[in-house]
Amino acid sequence: MRVPRDGDPDDTRRSLPPVALLRDLQVSMAAAASARNDAVAGAGRRRLRVFFLPFFARGHLIPQTDLACRVAAARPAEVEATMVVTPANAAFIAPTVARAAAAGHAVRVLRYPFPDVGLGEGMECLGTAPAHDAWRVYRARDLAQPLHESLLREHRPDAIVADVPFWWATEVAAELGVPRLTFHPVGVFPQLVMNNLFGIRSDIISAAREAVSVPGLPGKEITIPVSELPEFLVQDNFFSEAWDQMKASQLAGFGVVVNTFVGLEHPYCEEFGRVDARRAYFVGPLAQPSCSAAVHRGGESSVDCLSWLSTKPSQSVVYVCFGSWAHFSATQARELALGLEASDQPFLWVVRSDDSSERTQWTPPEGWEQRVANRGLVVRGWAPQLAVLAHPSVGAFMTHCGWNSVLEAASAGVPVLTWPLVFEQFINERLVTEVAAFGARVWDGGKRSEKDEEAETVPAEAIARAVAGFMEDGEQRETMKARARELAERARVAVSEDGSSWLDVHRLIDDLVQATASGLPLPQENSVRV
């Protein structure tokens, strides 16, 4: 599957050399901070006002909202978190914000209009836009720049946490004399892999090789077929054009917040803090499967899948979900349906709800629903993934390897069957299967690629064989189950009091308070807390 190009219409971007950007922003931030401190001198102590700007995708909206709530909950008397979002996205996160407010935490919402890019009403993120119109969401990103700049200048927050694509937040923060942090919704392993491969991008393009070994990574060697690399590493698109600019903005900013935990990516966390951030805060997992709000996090399900799960034996159900953005062809969806049927395993399959794209109009094979009625459930639209993964009847998760899904599976202690589709998901798969070792691939029998025209269809027989084999009792399954349980315990400890992620949330707040009070950049700190 291709990453939608923002270049379908003409697109113009400003560029600054990384070194010049860093120098200019540091000077600008110091001068503006001095003026800002003079303006607030003598005022009584108030909450630290932190603005959060997420990109237009549910995989970004949800964890950044979780982060805002986590920060506000950590110091209720000291921090006020504001989600800066468009109207439809505000409605999407409203239940989470309402629960935070009910708990007495200062979490607000500030709305701004979604840019007019020709999408239908209420289509304001990749999860709701038709597949063929996804490029319009990326176009909206560029058009949001003046809206963000105006809004930030008007409200003058004490700190800004902005998503990776919103590189201009660093410049505005410097102008205002406040810290800007980059929020990364994906882990440090995929970031390091993409960074290091981008450095040899010209060689990858010119060498016409079948696979590439990732240079500069700590630990074991990682090799990836070129067909499985994100498109921006092998040809020009929106990401390749914007990569240097986004990276320069990140390095010039105050620091980076990552939704991961040290117990999952320890050697990579150390390397990331050394080379890719002035300050690194590893604060995940932001989503907790044990939380009672997990049932409603992200939306409402069309069916009561949790009650259905309760009718199944312990660890018997394969949960199948490929995220809110990616799409299967009708042929591949049919093969998946037949493969799940032939596996003889109970399954819960989440299918993206229909929209105007023909690609998403999926009809089950004739008689299929009747044949699997006693052991299969299809949910169209949204399912409470955290609650599903935490259910004792779930024994495996077939996933596209989106970062949120990887992190949620690890946090819940559920072994994973990997089926990556787009962007960094093939890289995430290596972390799951080769490094953390709590999952296995669905298929190794043919070419895989994010480009539809290159990827081979995974046959039903292979799917059935993979599912049945993965669920079969034996040494391999027991090893993966034990590894998944170990990761779940590490995740629990990380977010508990004095755990690595708990400490990083409080360190983040302390650093922002100190930076706001002094108006001066703090000493560089790249240590990783274990």
Radius of gyration from the CA trace? 23 Å
Annotated CATH architecture of the largest domain? 3-Layer(aba) Sandwich
What's the CATH class of the largest domain, please?
Alpha Beta
Give average pLDDT, whole number: 86
User: What is the share of helical residues?
Assistant: 40-55%
The tally of domains stands at: 2
Strand order of the largest sheet: 3-2-1-4-5-8-9
Which residue ranges are poorly predicted, with pLDDT under 50 across at least 5 consecutive positions?
1-44, 355-360, 526-530
Number of strands: 15
Tally the helices: 18
Termini Cα gap: 37 Å
Q: Would you tell me which CATH topology of the largest domain applies?
A: Rossmann fold
Q: Name the assembly state.
A: single chain
GO molecular function, one term: UDP-glucosyltransferase activity
EC number: 2.4.1.-
Keywords: Glycosyltransferase, Transferase
Protein name: Glycosyltransferase
Description of the structure:
This protein is of the alpha/beta class and 530 residues long. It is built from 18 helices and 15 strands. It folds into two domains: 18-41 and 48-203 and 246-284 and 496-518, Rossmann fold (3-Layer(aba) Sandwich); 294-491, Glycogen Phosphorylase B (Rossmann fold), CATH 3.40.50. A seven-stranded parallel β-sheet has the order 3-2-1-4-5-8-9, sandwiched between helices. A six-stranded parallel β-sheet has the order 12-11-10-13-14-15, sandwiched between helices. Helix 1 packs parallel to helix 5, helix 6 (188-198) packs parallel to helix 9 (262-275) and helix 14 (403-412) packs across helix 17 (475-495). The longest helix has 23 residues, at 18-40. The radius of gyration is 23 Å and the shape is globular. The two termini are 37 Å apart. The model is unreliable at 1-44, 355-360 and 526-530 (pLDDT under 50). Keywords: Glycosyltransferase, Transferase.
